[in-house]
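note to self: the first set is below, dont mix up w the second
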Amino acid sequence: MKETTLCYIERGSEYLMLHRTKKKNDANHDKWLGIGGHIEPGETPMACVLREAKEETGLDLLDCRCRGIVHFRSDRWEDEEMHLFTAARFTGDIIPCDEGDLEWIDRDRLLSLTLWEGDRIFLKLLADGAEGFDLTLRYAGERLAGAVLNGNKLEIGG
């Protein structure tokens, strides 16, 4: 099972989003995501998210907060445990990213982007100020087949 981090960097009413367009054989190709990546051996989730933010954006995060854990289960990809963060304070200048294009997107526009279906669930949790949540997302191919939040099954669209 892989362990990863994902961070939504905030600037006013915007999130810094990564449009994944540059990597070959990318399960996230053409999707919009926050910033993050794989936790290296011996690395903590916090150390990982700080490192990934610096590598992908050039920014140093100053107030990173862990908001929840997202468990991905799939019939196509390796299971994943993702530590979800937000950060509203940072220093530095944005650099080009070799995984795709970085863009500040107003939160009101987020749901119009090409996202994983399950991302819409945790983006709403973030918007509602949720912390300490445990979310399991089960995928059949690229379709969200089930979701459980803090032990309670969620109704998902069809």
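second set (the one i keep forgetting abt)
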Amino acid sequence: MNQYETVFILTPVLSDEQMKETVAKFKTLLTDKGAEILNEETWGLKKMAYAIQKKSTGFYCLIEFKAEPEVIKTLETGYRRDEKVIRFMTVKLDKYAVQYAEKRRNKLAKKEEA
């Protein structure tokens, strides 16, 4: 199993509840295909560098997971079919990126404890 990181931007017209439902839908899609979710971060509503579909802001979400390569195709098909997703990008992490992601997770965990 490889380790991946996916970031997707949801349309800003969604309510907070709709945004959480959409993130949960993609997490469920991953777990149903046998992926192990390591980390999930919701970065919130952010301004984009340039307008996409005449929208200048979007809800940014990150999911870090371990999965087989076939799962990525299913996940990205799900992104393309969902009109709430403006942009997405999935990246396979190499050993250095995995180490960096672990440090980042630990740093965030310490911050949440304090």
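remember for set 2: The first strand starts at residue 2 and ends at 10.
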